[in-house]
Amino acid sequence: MRKHIVILNGANLNWLGRRETAIYGTQSMEQVMLDIQRRYPDVCFTYYQSNHEGDLIDRLQEPLEQQVRGEEPITGIVLNAGGYSHTSVALRDAVVLCPVPVVEVHISDISKREPFRHVSLLTDVCAHSIIGHGTDGYFESVQWLLNN
Fold it and tell me: Looking at residue 121, what is its pLDDT?
């Protein structure tokens, strides 16, 4: 059975590679996804980005809906919720409800940023967190999901 990993990005990550490049780097998410697919050609990837909290919650609930319908579940989710990581109890609740492992990613080291970014509401409910490894964090998250 082919593995299927969903990569979800939250608010403002559609500007990756063009936004605050000193913090987030110059690589676009399109480039990251091409590199991920090249590195893992036998894995099916679905990528989704939204600036809307509810859209991310809907995507996190899809594996639960698949399970209820008896469909083959996805392997796991890589989630970079961006600023919603620090503010969204509803997103946290969706991660708790998710029947597949969710790996939290932050491109920057949130512990070295503004104080309001130091706490992620997602860290303790995600299966794993990779923080501050740049866009390599996406690759590390995929590898973690494939190994666990």
Answer: 96
Residue 16 corresponds to which tokens in the numbers above? 């990756």
Active site positions, annotated:
24, 106
The domain limits of the chain are: 4-147
User: For domain 4-147, which architecture applies?
Assistant: 3-Layer(aba) Sandwich (3.40)
- Regions of the chain with pLDDT less than 50: none
In angstroms, the CA 148 to CA 127 distance is 10
Q: Looking at the DSSP assignment, which residues form a beta bridge with residue 47? A: 7
Task: Please list, in sequence order, all residues whose beta carbon lies within 8 angstroms of the beta carbon of residue 106, skipping any fewer than 6 positions away.
Answer: 80, 85, 120, 129, 130, 131, 132, 137
Residue 87: what pLDDT? Answer: 93
Instruction: Classify the phi-psi angles of 132: left when phi > 0, otherwise alpha if psi is within -120 to 50, otherwise beta.
Output: left
Residue 7's DSSP bridge partners are 47, 78
Query: Which pLDDT value is given to residue 10?
Result: 95
The pTM (predicted TM-score) of the whole model is: 0.92
